[in-house]
Amino acid sequence: MGHFFVSLIAFLLVACQSTGEFSAKNINSEDIPTPTVGDTRPEVESDQPIQPRFCNDDIYTKHIRDEYNRENKAQLSGKSKEKDYRADEESFKVLRYQLPLEFSGSPISPSPRVLTWISYFTGRGRADFLLWLVRSESFRETVVPLLEREGLPPEFFFLAMIESGFSNSASSSAKATGTWQFMRPTAEHYGLQVNYWVDERRDPTKSTLAAARYLKDLYSQFGDWYLALAAYNAGPTRVIKAMKAMNTRDYWVLARSPYLRTETKDYVPKLLAALIVASHAPTYGFDTVADMRNSSPSAHIELLNSYRVADLALRFGVAESHLMHWNPELMQGITPPINARRKAYTLHLPKGLQDQWTALEPELERLDISDILIHRVRRGDTVASIARLYKVSIKKIMETNPQVNAKRLKLGQSVNVPIPSIRGGTMQAQLQTS
Prior knowledge:
By secondary structure, the chain is mainly alpha-helical.
């Protein structure tokens, strides 16, 4: 395993020359690709600048946070920036002994930005990075084989780390969502469904396949992995404009120019730093053990009807939050309706629960869902008046809109109206009387 990660690090660091050796490569304008995907807007938006943020998708995140905060008190450093930088260099010297000094004839040297991010991940950002490392153990078995199957270097596994911290529910202010932080237009372009029922950007398997295909397309367009990564973050058009302005195809030259955002200039260095620290976690003082409670489900069942997640969880004898954690793409607490476009829905479960399905299925309430209509709240609307308008019960509207405050409807607010409705059954009656 150690040799595997050393190879991965060498692959990414090969293009990272020492800062004194950077020089722009003259290129012809015809060598610069034209945009083929998206526009000037970023297709994939990275997460917010790193800060303490512990997402609620993990079953035991709070435990990790509390344990870390108890055992690691914040310590203010009186060292100067120069001493900090020297400390970074000393830290990397230790790592260099574990790496080949050359790769394909090129020296392996990190840029100052890489050293800065190594320092951050092992210093002020240590709590976040600890959480990412623990999450990575459960994601690795799912993500790495998919990347390799799609012909991508497996070190791109760490791209998901810096995008979302391996959080399925991560979202940004720009409305990027999921493990790979896809914006909706690009997600749909690569076959991910984003609708009322599901958001497949939150599904680690489906979103990884989409991200791999997008990255391959960007590599075909730019012919360089670092440029492809920059385009993944900033959008192809922005990177192409920077290349034309600087007359270069060298990412490291572009990263020193004013034509890329700071976030994009830090994007590859942050990835390299994450790969280095994660691949040599003990060297940097990280000691993590995979927790089976956070592992990915290995079994699947095909649902031919719609069910409430709460009902399924009750029958399986697990917490509803666990079932949602295993199926993060579900947006309404209900498995999607089965229709001409969707013949079945695949529910992910741990192996032990799969065997219970045959016995449980006859006891479950089946939901009859034909369609969902979106009603925009107008002046004078109430939940009761909306229910009368569409001839459905107030209860059904509230069941389908758990986020709506019936006493405080806002003008223009979206209210989902089930048409004809979600019809209850024996299971619901049992829950109400229990």
